[in-house]
Design goal:
The chain is 32% helix and 24% strand. It binds 1,4-dihydronicotinamide adenine dinucleotide and alpha-L-sorbopyranose. Keywords: Oxidoreductase.
Length: 389
């Protein structure tokens, strides 16, 4: 009989919603499931918020004390969906208690904190995953398959972007994402790390960077705690303003260990852009192009294509492609954000069932943090910075 594993989810905001949906849906897609997630306890900062999340997300219990929850004998998996400042503390306590862990991205507020988390999970011998879900978009996994099969030859160049506009309005509140002590950095850690994860997944480790990291909106109206509602936040232009101490944008050149070169751009102030995650990869035998806003599609051009049919063409992800066995039976039926989280959940529970670490795990999350550190340092010094692995 398929085993059931009890999940304690810490944080009932945006990611709480996405993860709770994935726990409920994963066995409906991937059946027989490697193990069945049971939504046991949800934790938030107050009893009221936790109880609200319990009712909404279908957990058995609610709590406002994550320390008591992560050591409980009846908890198998700890899921960290809080802002970045408490990822390390919760993960280290959960590892010490022998729990398997999934932690939202970015793993930490920098390399030093991420290293402590990695040491803790390795010492405890638990399964660990960092929730960079975009690499689990089937079309992205298909790009990786083509690259592994040598279909575009040796990679020469990677161009990655993550462009949004929810923070372009200067009267948007000073949520936790604009505070260094909570977030660690701005666009770099929040969305630039997604691009770094994709670059690592598709090309290989980044070895050096040079970056510009401006802050355009230097003060914002103070928000009295609470969830970050992103663009949907209530605006209060008359509220007292305080300093934004993180970057709004990063524009960077990259060198990879394998000799490839590339670029990365991330901003949350790019009017008209929503979740514009793109990459274009050029190889010696072809090119691959992806745009998350059209995430059923992978655009490819192979040098071996006949002379009279050259140019980018579209492959629609479906049953013949990665994760196709569990998702929808017809290509282009529609992959959404939820599907990326369902696949992530499947890979986590498969890892727990088999004892084989998933990817990206805390070691991958740590490497990504080292790149983020290098981007921040380069933004300050305006020099090329080697990634300190
Ligand atoms: P949010 O602001 O919507 O929700 C965070 C929740 O955590 C709130 O309910 C808050 O009260 C709770 N919380 C804060 N401190 C806590 C503590 N000490 N104990 C228990 N609960 C606590 O934030 P959101 O957007 O859900 O982000 C959470 C994490 O997920 C962040 O690390 C963020 O970077 C990541 N994220 C990842 C995404 C992805 O696509 N993989 C998308 C959005 C966020
Ligand atoms: C805001 O920029 C945000 O919610 C990020 O925190 C997530 O990581 C991204 O997936 C969606 O946008």
């Amino acid at each position: 009989m398929t085993k059931t594993l009890n999940v304690a989810m810490i944080g009932g905001g945006f990611m709480g919603k996405a993860h709770a949906m994935a726990y409920a849906s994963m066995p409906m897609f991937f059946w027989p499931a490697p193990a069945i997630p049971h939504r046991k306890v949800v934790v938030d900062v107050t009893d009221e918020l936790a109880e609200d999340a319990r009712q909404r997300f279908g957990f058995d219990e609610a709590s406002s004390d994550w320390r008591a929850v992560v050591t409980r004998d009846d908890i198998d998996v700890v899921d960290i969906c809080t802002p970045n400042n408490v990822h390390a503390e919760i993960a280290i306590a959960a590892a010490k208690a022998g729990k398997h862990i999934i932690c939202e991205k970015p793993l930490a507020r920098g390399g030093e904190e991420a290293r402590e988390m990695l040491d803790a999970v390795e010492k405890a011998g638990v399964i660990h995953m960092v929730a960079f879900n975009y690499r689990r978009t089937p079309a992205v996994a298909l790009a990786r398959k083509y690259i592994e099969e040598g279909r575009i030859g040796k990679i020469l160049n990677f161009r990655g972007t993550y462009l949004q506009d929810w923070s372009a309005d200067p009267d948007g509140p000073l949520s936790w994402r604009f505070q260094k002590k909570i977030a660690g950095s701005g666009a770099i850690g929040d969305i630039g790390t997604h691009v770094v994860d994709l670059a690592h997944y598709l090309v290989g480790p980044i070895s050096a960077v040079t970056a510009m990291t401006p802050t355009y909106v230097t003060t914002r109206p103070v928000q009295a705690g609470g969830q970050d509602k992103l663009g949907a936040s209530e605006k209060n232009a008359d509220a007292e303003r305080a300093t934004v101490d993180v970057d709004d944008e990063v524009v960077s050149l990259l060198k990879f260990e394998n000799g490839a070169i590339g670029s990365l751009e991330a901003t949350r102030n790019g009017y008209g852009r929503n979740n514009f995650i793109t990459f274009e990869i050029h190889g010696t035998e072809g090119s691959i192009l992806f745009n998350y806003e059209r995430r059923d599609e992978l655009r490819v051009m192979f040098n071996s294509d006949p002379a009279d049919a050259r140019g980018f063409r579209t492959v629609y992800s479906g049953p013949a492609h990665p994760y196709g066995e569990g998702l929808w039976p017809i290509p282009a039926l529609g992959i959404g954000y939820s599907e990326t989280k369902i696949v992530e959940c499947y890979d986590l529970f498969k890892a727990i069932a088999t004892g084989v670490q998933p990817s990206p795990n805390f070691a991958d999350g740590y490497l990504t943090e080292l790149v983020a550190d290098a981007l921040i340092e380069s933004g300050e010094t305006q020099q090329w910075v080697k990634v300190k692995t």
